[in-house]
Amino acid sequence: TSIAEGGMRQATVYYVGQQAIPDSRVFGASILYTLGSAAIFSTLIFYLLSTSEDYDYTMVMMVTAALILPVALFMNAIRGMFLGKQHIKQFNTNQWLQKLVLVGLFALLFAFDLLTVETTVVCMLLASLIGFLPALHFFFKTIYTHVEFNLPALWTMVKKGSVYATALFLIEA
Q: How far is CA 2 from the centre of its chain?
């Protein structure tokens, strides 16, 4: 996720916080980048899983794994707007809600002896979606004005984001 995100959440926080680029352009650039990145990396995930000889992945596992990434990328785009607009409480609530749902689903499946690799991947997608929906609702209710797709803004954010992505990659490596 951090590679596919390309530092765009951090760039979003920076440009929204600095008010250097209008919010509508920042959000538009973030959406464009997220759409492109999600398409590329989800396809790559599906391809790698379908051609893997190490494990016999089911179609449900491959599709679900490929869908987790776009949800996470869109979630991070919205989280960047939350942080840039200083909605720290909503950012934190969104973080723990997703983790709480995931742990709850795991515990429930474990209690009924239904926890498998396939159900784990499905739980990860469900937890992401359940965490994403309230965040999306809050975003459109309080932050969203409109979207403006502007390629210079996208390019500016990609340049800034790549610096953040490189630093994050080196820290995580």
A: 9
What would you report as the CA-atom Rg of the chain, rounded to the nearest whole angstrom?
17
Residues 35-82: pLDDT tens digits?
Answer: 999 999 999 999 999 999 888 899 999 999 999 999 999 999 999 999
What are the C-alpha distances in Å from 98 to residues 35, 66, 95?
22, 18, 6
97 token code pair: 């809600």
Show contacts of 139-144: CB within 8 Å, 24+ apart: 139/78, 139/81, 139/82, 142/87, 143/23, 143/81, 143/82, 143/85, 143/87, 144/27
69, 132 in Cβ contact below 8 A?
no
Pair 124, 98: CB distance under 8 Å: no
Helix, strand and coil in the chain, % to nearest 5: 85, 0, 15
2 burial type by CB count under 10 A (0-12 exposed, 13-18 middle, 19+ buried)? middle
The predicted structure's pLDDT at residue 169: 87
- What's the whole-model pTM score? 0.89
CA 40 to chain centre: 14
pLDDT digits over 82-104, tens only? 999 999 998 888 889 999 999 99
Q: How many DSSP H helices and E strands does the chain contain? A: 7, 0
